[in-house]
Amino acid sequence: RIRKLVRAEDPTGLVIGPCSSIIRSNWFEAVFRAGVLRWVDGIETHAYPDGRFTPEADDLPGRLQRLQALVRRYNHGKPLPLYITELGQTGILGDEIIALSQAQRMVRACIILKGEGARVFLPFYGIDYDRAGYWGFLYNLDLDSRAGPWETKRGSPKPLVNAVAACALLLEGATPRGRVRGLGRDVWAYAFYHRGTRITAVWSPAGTRTAMVPAGRARRAEVTDMTGHSTSVSAVHGAVRLTVGESPVYVCVPAQKRR
Length: 259
Known about the structure:
This protein is α+β, with helices and mostly antiparallel strands. It is 24% helix and 27% strand.
């Protein structure tokens, strides 16, 4: 009924769903088996961690891949675009505010979603609306006012603001080229192509690691940190040697033409 009404109003309108807070294969398979894929133009879901603190520990790539495989299985082998309409990272652990960690985990989730082919990601949330999760991009300086958190007039940015802005500036419009493996134990990386540039986003959720990031025939690479500050680094024997950690960095080199 909803699809019929939407298409009558706007023949190009999209009906997307079904929405779950967590990407759990058994839940999605149940609704796919019931026939929901006949009525949707894309898969919409939230992607919160299932009891894990980081997107890597939660196996976010595996969850996305299993979801996409289920879509093809129950949609006659055809994929559907994936819309992640909500995912946030808590900014508090116990009684400690962890704003830097929040930014690191959110950007890593952004990169994974983009790298695994998600069409859209809408991150959660604009401001802190309580003290239980500190989910916001901004500290809410009116959090304790009588008007309540939804009428705040004063905010202060967290590291999350610059970190997600830098990620969007570099990767918006880029084409994902898949996960890059073999860079070392606990080193994660995804490659992207954008306007003649190969961008490799690389990090380690397990602390400081050394990684040799492929640079092709480039002699130098532009390395941008999580907050958007760039520096030029020499490439030796086709690779850039970097010390990486929980904050992703982006290695940009001219893309080699495919034969």
